[in-house]
Amino acid sequence: MSLKIEVKTFGELTTIELYAMLQLRSAVFVVEQDCVYQDMDGKDQKALHILGFKNDILVAYTRIFKPGDYFDYASIGRVVVRQTERAFKYGYAIMEASIKAVELRFGATTIKISAQEHLQQFYNNLGFSKTGTSYLEDGIPHIAMLKT
């Protein structure tokens, strides 16, 4: 089953969608990865939100930023797929939708991400290449990656 993808500004999110988005990010980044950090970082208001629904349930999500918001390049972050749905490769579907949204909404082709290091091959498969050395972000090894 394919995902139903929606792209929304912060103001376009319904309260139900906002709650589902925050709940999903918390379930994976805070609980599953046992990482205490401030997820609500004040950046959601500037982002475009890429929501992936399966049977009206949010199972995949990213947020994207235009060039200059936080990096010289457009960026994709908070990439998340509900743990029970990962076997269906929704990570690829939500990332492909996010890359397409960056190109269509921002006219940008270069995209920067801060990837968890253990997911480097996943992002390589999507056309991203590692730049620089590994670093810790919220106690988890990360690498900067670019897609050009």
- Which residue ranges are poorly predicted, with pLDDT under 50 across at least 5 consecutive positions? none
Q: SSE order in H/E notation?
A: EHEEEHEHEE
* CATH H-level homologous superfamily name: Gcn5-related N-acetyltransferase (GNAT)
Number of helices: 3
The CATH architecture designation is 3-Layer(aba) Sandwich
Mean pLDDT: 95
Which helices and strands occur, and which strands form pairs?
Elements: E1 4-9, H1 15-32, E2 48-54, E3 57-65, E4 74-81, H2 90-106, E5 111-116, H3 120-125, E6 129-137, E7 140-147
Parallel strand pairs: 4-5
Antiparallel strand pairs: 1-2, 2-3, 3-4, 5-7, 6-7
Keywords:
Aminopeptidase; 28% helix; 7 strands; alpha+beta; 148 residues
Q: What does it look like?
A:
The chain is of the alpha+beta class. It has one domain: 3-Layer(aba) Sandwich (Aminopeptidase), CATH 3.40.630.30. Helices cover 28% and strands 36% of the residues. It has three helices and seven strands. The protein has a seven-stranded mixed beta sheet, with helices on both faces. Strand 4 (74-81), helix 2 and strand 5 (111-116) form a beta-alpha-beta unit. It is globular, with a radius of gyration of 14 Å. The model has no long low-confidence stretch (mean pLDDT 95).
Summarize the structure.
The chain is of the alpha+beta class and 148 residues long. The protein is built from three helices and seven strands.
